[in-house]
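Input (Alcohol dehydrogenase, iron-dependent):
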Amino acid sequence: MKNFDYNIPTRVHFGKGQISKLRGEVKNFGHNVLLVYGGNSIKRNGIYDQVMEQLNDSDINVFELSGIAPNPRIDSARDGVKLCKECKIDVILAVGGGSVIDCSKLIAAGAFYDGDPWDLVLKSSLIKEALPIISVLTLSATGSEMDGFAVISNMETNDKLGMGGEILKPRVSILDPEYTYTVPANQTAAGTADIMSHIIETYFHDVEGAYLQDRFAESLLKTCIEFGPIAVKEPENYDARANLMWAGSHAINGMISYGTDVGWSVHPMEHELSAYYDITHGVGLAILTPRWMKHILSDKTVGKFVDYGVNVWGIDSSLDKFEIANMAIEKTYDFFASIGIPMNLREVGIDEENLEVMAEFASKRGAKYGYVSLSKEDVLEIYKMSL
Ligand code: NZQ
Ligand code: ZN
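Output:
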């Protein structure tokens, strides 16, 4: 196991009715609040009203920024930064899924930066200070509620880039599983795939002796496999929503990656698909993951696949190791298909046209540094297998 510096600073209020903690938490950080949210979902399901009830206080002034799109755009962040500077915002309250929270992170950092916020996306080391962020999560997927990353898109240049910093970790997150009851089946499935991808990207590493991290990761994967399908079928099943929500946070908050050496492969490949075609992140990951697994299976990696097949999917450990690995990959594919995810790129509107250019960027922007280094040619092959 490698050395690490543990830092998971987010205070989490988990469970039914925890919104009641919001007023006190906001007041801990100041008076002027920027409420950031997406489309209309929080108005339709009543979360907006519950939040506003908490903010109805003579000591709190609320400013709003709405309309944050899935795959959040740099333009929204620019608007938010302007508001923070004009209205002297003390704290950002992000109410939504990963897109809203990610956009809030860039706004939080941009509030202390004089230039264009896009500079911070291109170069995270420019981030020196940030406003505190409180999140109220409405969709289990990205883990943005407990991590320091954000992914921002610039559709004019077909860029979708990650940025990050310890100071971007939300200071407080309210996680009420009931807030995810209205997430539609397709987003629930995509969210489950995203959580599983975060775990898989982390789990496939070469570090000796990170036994505990690997067993944690396997438990998180089994939790998604158990509860993802239930949440898709029974959207108001509290335990399914609760287990998915908590798994989503732990998938990426550091618990399973501290002490290992993580280079992600599938995310850089997916981010190019979203940048060019604006597809749902989790769907892209589900399509690519089993193809990536097939591509990297070799004598060198097969041991990890055996652990994955036996410990996660319950495959008989006495079988031949490549047989176990191939069965595990098939089970991964079948699982995503079973929760209703379209499993080919063509089904989400992607054809051969931009595969070359996307493969080049994906390799350069991360896949080259993954568990198994992927060249442009490797990525292209994976994209073609996924068509
Ligand atoms: O905009 P509204 O109306 O709120 O609707 C949203 C949106 O259309 C809807 N939704 C959210 N909560 C709902 C709901 N609908 C009904 N009921 C609710 N309770 O769901 C749609 C998708 O929302 P979005 O926030 O885009 O989804 P998600 O949480 O999957 O976030 C995806 C973004 O996060 C990035 C992705 O690349 C993508 O841009 N990621 C962020 C990461 C991070 N910060 O660590 C890591 C991830 O790997 C990922 O890359
Ligand atoms: Zn993801």
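Strands lie at 11-14, 32-37, 61-65, 91-96, 133-137, 149-154, 159-164, 172-175.
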